[in-house]
Amino acid sequence: MTDESSLGANLPGLKEILEALFFASDEPLTLKQVNEILGDLDETDRPRRISEESILKAVEELNKELEETHRAFRIVKVAGGYQFATLPRFAHWLGKMVREKSKRKLTQAALESLAVIAYKQPVTKPEIEAIRGVNADYVLHSLLERNLVTIVGRAATPGRPLLYGTTREFLKHFGLNDLSELPKPREIDELLAEAEFEVEKRMLAEREAKVQGDDDEMEGLVAKPPDQGNIVVAEDGTLREIDDAPNIDELSKDPE
């Protein structure tokens, strides 16, 4: 059995390795990814066996140490993984430093379409346009380029229109761990009402504003677009990763 507090006589302890990994990673690291990396550190041919409980305990201890030493950041769980993120109370100063990020703020049209996709996914372009009442070609292309939505398949309806769903980058943008954390209306019946869309749009806008702080999107040290699988909702309601989504150019093939 591997000593989970010390990974070897010539190697740092688990907490130190985790701290280095989370600091250096541009993306949230899942427990599986962490274990795979730790396995590569073994000096023998045998992979190391470190339980998820031990990793989580080490993360908890690291956060406790960060709190006790009054550090400005913590290790947080986001988009199914773990990463360093600054505390909300520093948003004012971070916002000044990264003011350029404000240009990346979603437009009203993009936010409206994203709200439709987030709450109705998987959803087709004609369905999005029917709800919003305007053409969605440009805004969909923009959301695809920003990797906030992805193509998850085709609908089993005449013309086989493309289906759209949200991505892992969407979860990161709004500070969500999974889609179950999306704000929900007070009553289920509202989901079927036309007025409910305004509620969804408002809640999504409020969520984005909360995550951004003073023009800061609160993405911590993350600067690169995700290169891991996208997370979408399967037909059975569960989350699954899509690694082979069609190219953006397929938009031109979407039947009207």
How is this structure best summarized?
By secondary structure, the chain is of the alpha+beta class. It is built from nine helices and seven strands; from the N terminus they run H-H-H-E-E-H-H-E-H-H-E-E-H-H-E-E. The protein folds into two domains: 14-86, Arc Repressor Mutant, subunit A (Orthogonal Bundle), CATH 1.10.10.10; 101-253, Arc Repressor Mutant, subunit A (Orthogonal Bundle).
Give the topology, please.
Layout lengths: L13 H11 L6 H10 L11 H17 L4 E6 L2 E6 L4 H7 L10 H13 L2 E2 H8 L4 H9 L3 E6 L7 E5 L1 H6 L22 H17 L17 E4 L5 E4 L14
Antiparallel strand pairs: 1-2, 3-5, 4-5, 6-7
Overview of the molecule:
The chain has 9 helices and 7 strands. The chain is an alpha+beta fold and 256 residues long. The protein has 2 domains: 14-86, Orthogonal Bundle (Arc Repressor Mutant, subunit A); 101-253, Winged helix-like DNA-binding domain superfamily/Winged helix DNA-binding domain (Arc Repressor Mutant, subunit A), CATH 1.10.10. The chain has a 3-stranded antiparallel β-sheet with strand order 3-5-4. The protein has a two-stranded antiparallel ribbon with strand order 1-2. Strands 6-7 form a two-stranded antiparallel sheet. Strand 4 (149-154) and strand 5 (162-166) form a beta hairpin. Helix 1 (14-24) packs across helix 3 and helix 5 packs across helix 7. It is globular. It starts with 13 loop residues before the first helix and ends in a 14-residue tail after the last strand.
